[in-house]
Specification:
It is a single chain. By secondary structure, this protein is of the alpha+beta class. It contains nine helices and seven strands; from the N terminus they run H-H-H-E-E-H-H-H-H-E-H-E-E-E-H-E. Helix 1 packs across helix 2, helix 4 packs across helix 5 and helix 4 runs parallel beside helix 6. The N terminus is likely disordered.
């Protein structure tokens, strides 16, 4: 519902806190059809004087129509700004939860903190990246890789997401997993590349797509495509 105040709006700087107020008011109106100051205070976990001060500022800026003892209404400018903030929140929360695999609660909290410093264009680009990785068929290998990389985040002191080509030449590591992107894992297993095996990189030859390594003392020649999907435990 639109209701514009009679006074000419002042130019105000919308802080992160004021954007939170607009977002909260929009959510309350959507849920209940109105937004009372007491409901705003309860939802935002702030005291009434803080709400009164914020609404006064937003009223001067032309974003809300605020009168004591009356429900708070968003003006056209307030609705537009609230929707911009809410859209960024949705995009960010989706990016953190669906693409990065963070729990819903953490994703929501992170979105709340970041939505005020990310512009709309940046949010749109994040949305495009997230959609492409999640839905495009030619990103299937990348989806597999990311899922496996996130799987190993909980290992303390482990190099996060380390695959075989990242192993410094001459250093030893333990094979943790053969990734889902390896077309013929049985061929690698026949060469000794199984979970728990000790592996050492001897030469990386990107110009011919090869990785020469030693597995439990035996030389093994494999493609870089396969090597990039062999997960290892390397602690430096």
């Amino acid at each position: 519902m639109l209701k514009t105040g009679p006074k000419k709006a002042e130019a105000i700087q919308l802080s992160a806190s004021l954007e939170d107020y607009l977002e909260t008011i929009a959510a309350l109106i959507e849920e209940h059809g109105h937004a009372h100051t007491s409901d705003i205070a309860e939802r935002m976990k702030v005291k009434m004087p803080s709400v009164t001060y914020a609404l006064g500022t937003l009223s001067r800026g032309g974003y809300v129509d605020y009168r004591p003892n009356q429900p708070v209404m968003l003006t056209g400018a307030g609705i537009a700004m609230a929707e911009r903030v809410r859209r960024k929140h949705r995009v960010l929360e989706d990016f953190f939860h669906e693409l990065l695999g963070l729990p819903a609660g953490i994703s929501g909290e992170a979105a709340c903190r970041i939505e005020h410093v990310v512009d709309g264009n940046t949010a749109s680009r994040m949305q495009i990246i997230s959609g492409a990785i999640r839905h495009r068929n030619d990103c299937r290998a990348l989806r597999n890789y990311l899922e496996e990389a996130f799987e190993f985040l909980g290992y303390a002191e482990r190099e996060v997401g380390t695959v075989l080509p990242a192993l410094p030449v001459g250093k030893h590591a333990t094979v943790l997993k053969l990734g889902a992107n390896i077309a013929e894992p049985q061929r690698l297993e026949a060469q000794g590349l199984t979970v728990g095996a000790t592996v050492t990189v001897e030469r990386l030859l990107p110009e011919v797509n090869r990785c020469v390594c030693r597995v439990d003392g035996r030389e093994c020649d494999l493609s870089l495509d396969d090597a990039e999907n062999i997960w290892i435990d390397f602690r430096g």
